[in-house]
Amino acid sequence: MARSTQTSSGALAKPAKAKAPKLTKQQQMVEESVKALSEVLFESALPKITNDEELYQRFVDYFKRCIEQGRIPTVEECLLCTGYSYQYMQGVRRSIYKPPWSTDKTPEIITWAIDICRAYDAKMVMSGKLPQVPYIFRAKNHYQMSDRTEVEITTTSTDREHVSLEDLMKRYSVETTFADEPKTEPKEGN
Fold first, then answer.
1. Is residue 87 within a helix (H) or strand (E), and if so which, with residue range?
2. Helices 86-93 and 106-126 meet at what angle, rounded to 10?
3. pTM listed for this prediction
């Protein structure tokens, strides 16, 4: 325990604060991991929402917590804060699942929250704070973005369906001969 000392003027000096030991990179990583996991566990332990108003408010509260605590919002954690799993809530958004509390507005509310996470990720990558490769992965997996290439295919012959197997074999067969094999002409009548 630190003791107060008397200065030359007779006043008591405040005890010096002990400096926290500098953490190694390994210790910092463990500390950050524990913090991140505790945040995810907190969000996933919230009670299940029971109506659209509660769903909307839960998302608003989640984003407020991220702002107040300096946390990074993620679509996974955002959906977990509903009390349901990520996959289930994605299914509700896509109208694969329809819980009894949901309405026609439910997918729209979930999409709104995901769009906020999507816009946040985009701002982070544009500012250089999120590497492009992880962003591309997240965009394809969470935001239904995709690489698109258009390939135009045209057919030049309409009679392909009417070609017999024998005609195809004749058209595409390759006659092979070996150098030391004499060439012989096919005999007629065989």
1. helix 86-93
2. 110
3. 0.62
